[in-house]
Design goal:
disordered N terminus, 2 domains, mainly beta, about 40% strand, about 15% helix, Immunoglobulin-like
């Protein structure tokens, strides 16, 4: 963007006008940089796999339905020597869980999702990177029918030419069930 100040009448070339023009140019420049600074993860070609589980509220044994239907979509993408992963968790809980004013504290002692980037090895797979997300408040934000969804932020790891895959697990600590965190694994997605 080229401006020719010689064409602007001298009355408009005052100090205040020059300052205003400078601020406008800086704003345009910052906006231009912001547009160019779009995350590379947004332009990736993602491979995703979804799997579902029905999970019983282990801390409740009353007369009301208490099964939660979870669907987890694990996604992976590659760009050069980097591999990226993200996940989406969707749930359908009995409607009586909705409207919780205590962030589901009477249902969960904690609720999380662990996202992994792994490499397949002979034997146990190598965890290249993992990130834990606290999703209890996301679960509590379900609609009146008991439905909701949440998408993780993207994680990335430089892996060179290795293949890697995205994997994820719900980590739920049900209130009053007498045990600690229970892990529920879902289907992984390979970067091949």
């Amino acid at each position: 963007m080229k401006l020719n100040l010689r064409r602007i009448p001298s009355a408009q070339r005052s100090s205040a006008a020059r300052k205003a023009m400078s601020v406008a140019l800086v704003g345009v420049t910052v906006a231009g940089v912001s547009v160019l600074a779009v995350s590379p993860a947004s332009a990736l070609s993602w491979k995703c796999k979804s799997s579902s589980k029905t999970i019983d509220d282990a801390g409740y044994s009353g007369p009301w339905g208490d099964n939660w239907d979870f669907t987890v979509t694990n996604c992976v993408a590659r760009s050069g020597s980097y591999v990226y992963a993200k996940a989406t968790v969707k749930w359908d809980a009995p409607p009586w869980y909705s409207g919780s004013t205590d962030n589901l504290a009477e249902v969960f002692d904690s609720a999380g999702f662990r996202l992994y980037l792994k490499h397949a090895d002979a034997g146990a797979d190598t965890v290249l990177l993992k990130k834990d997300f606290d999703i209890q408040s996301k679960l509590a934000a379900m609609n009146g029918a008991g439905n909701g969804s949440w998408t993780s932020s993207t994680i990335k790891k430089k892996v060179g030419s290795k293949t890697a895959y995205a994997d994820g697990a719900l980590r739920l600590n049900w209130d009053e069930d007498g045990t600690d965190v229970r892990t529920y694994d879902f289907t992984a997605t390979s970067s091949k």
